[in-house]
Amino acid sequence: MTIAVGKKIGMTQIENEGSFVGVSVVEILPLIVTQIKKEDKDGYSAIQFGVLDSNKKTKLKKPQIGHLKKISDLGSASLGRDGKEKPNKFREFRIVDDKDDISALKVGEKINFDNFGEGDQVDISGMSIGRGFQGVIKRHHFHRGPKTHGSDHHRAPGSIGMCSFPARVFKGKKLPGRDGVKNVKIKNLRIIKFYKEKSLMLLNGSVPGKKDSYIGIRLASKAKIEA
Q1: Are 45 and 38 in contact (CB under 8 A)?
Q2: What is the spatial distance between Cα 140 and Cα 135, in angstroms, rounded to a whole number?
Q3: pTM of the predicted model, to two decimals?
Q4: Most buried residue among 139, 140, 160, 182 by CB atoms closer than 10 A?
Q5: Separation of alpha carbons 153 and 170, rounded Å
């Protein structure tokens, strides 16, 4: 499979080709297929994985428990039963091309990651770090106003609306508000090192999210970098 789910461990730097590069350390987590969505039944093609993270105990909500129980009742898998592994998070990947062949996958099957290797390029998706309520300078990169000559316009957004007509502020205006906590996708990150026995991947550059957050990993269309 060219799909994986990782957990961000942190960042460090390593020596690579005579220079030091900043890398993100990502732990590749085992996955189990919990649902396969098809175009004729669900309206789109996708595959849903359950993330098996033994170091993170997360209580599933009742709808999620019922979802796993329904799979077990169909005889596809025995998820969540005594002695069986139970996922603590779900992740869904859409199938948009023939690169990901899901015809041979079955519900309850574990996924390996033999298709990833050093030098590959991957696309990363995850939730960005929340920064709380921020002003327009930090949130939208506005320029500040003058600090001298009697100006009282320093970090304010400035004029945002009309006068008598239409006498309102248009929707979508860049204003102060909650920053971060958005789905972010970074394309074509290079795998510097891949320790398959430890399920660790070192990616060139930063990845979205804070420590111990989950990220989606997908093999890019241009998988190999020319030497």
Answers
A1: yes
A2: 8
A3: 0.81
A4: 139
A5: 22
C-beta separation of 185 from 122 below 8 A? no
Beta strands 183-195 and 200-204 are antiparallel
Here the tokens at position 15 are 């020596």
Q: pLDDT 10s per residue in the chain (227 long)?
A: 688 999 999 999 998 878 899 999 999 999 888 888 888 888 988 999 998 887 777 778 888 888 888 777 665 555 655 546 778 889 999 887 666 666 778 888 888 777 788 999 999 999 999 999 999 999 999 999 999 999 988 999 988 888 888 888 899 999 999 999 999 999 999 999 999 889 999 999 999 999 999 999 998 876 544 43
Per-residue DSSP letters for 120-148? EEEEEEEEPPP-EEE-HHHHH-PPP--SS
Whole-angstrom distance, CA of residue 50 vs CA of residue 25: 22
The answer for residues whose C-beta is within 8 angstroms of residue 40's C-beta and 6 or more apart is none
Distance from chain centroid for Cα 101: 21
- Side chain identity at residue 147, one-letter code: K
All structural domains of the chain = 3-130+182-224 (2.40.30.10), 134-179 (no CATH)
Q: Which whole-number Å values give the CA distances from 42 to 31, 75, 77, 91, 187, in the listed order?
A: 22, 21, 21, 16, 28
Q: Please, what's the b/e burial string for 144-166 (b: 16 or more CB within 10 A of its CB; e: otherwise)?
A: eeeeeeeeeeeeebeeeeeeeee
